[in-house]
Amino acid sequence: MKIAYMLSASWLAASVIAAAAHAAYPDRPIALVVPFPPGGSTDLAARIVAAKLEKAFVEASKDPAVAKKLSEQSIRPLGLPAKDLGALIRKEIDQWARVIKEAKVENK
């Protein structure tokens, strides 16, 4: 049974990596879906794969060739890990919510 889970995790990781390799960056967000409950070996394997993918994407975004290609598409890579990017997004949401409130913009 454990072998089946490990093979499932390996297959899942390989499919995510293959999908990421074929998609044009940043074509769309990458979601790593683990169809098993948290805390198991599959969850642990998925977290390891996700951490390695995040590190690889951050490193790739700092590569001058990648930065140039993204710049040509009017994209400015931040090169932030997920937790720092989340904090930046929350800060931006708070800032723009205040601007919208002060300008009394209403949703119609």
Largest sheet: none
Chain-averaged pLDDT = 76
- Tally the helices: 4
Gross morphology: flat
What is the CA-CA span between the terminal residues? Answer: 55 Å
Strand fraction equals under 5%
Radius of gyration: 18 Å
The string of secondary-structure elements, in order, is: HHHH
Query: Roughly how much helix do the residues carry, as a percent range?
Result: 55-70%
Low-confidence stretches: none
How many beta-strand runs? 0
Could you explain how this protein is built, in words?
It is a single chain. This protein has 108 residues and is mainly α. The protein contains four helices and no strands. The chain has helices spanning 2-22, 41-61, 64-72, 82-102. The chain is flat, with a radius of gyration of 18 Å.
Would you summarize the structure shown here?
The radius of gyration is 18 Å and the shape is flat.
Provide key terms for this protein.
108 residues, flat, mainly alpha, single chain, 0% strand
List the helices and strands and how they pair.
Elements: H1 2-22, H2 41-61, H3 64-72, H4 82-102
Helix pairs in contact: 1-2
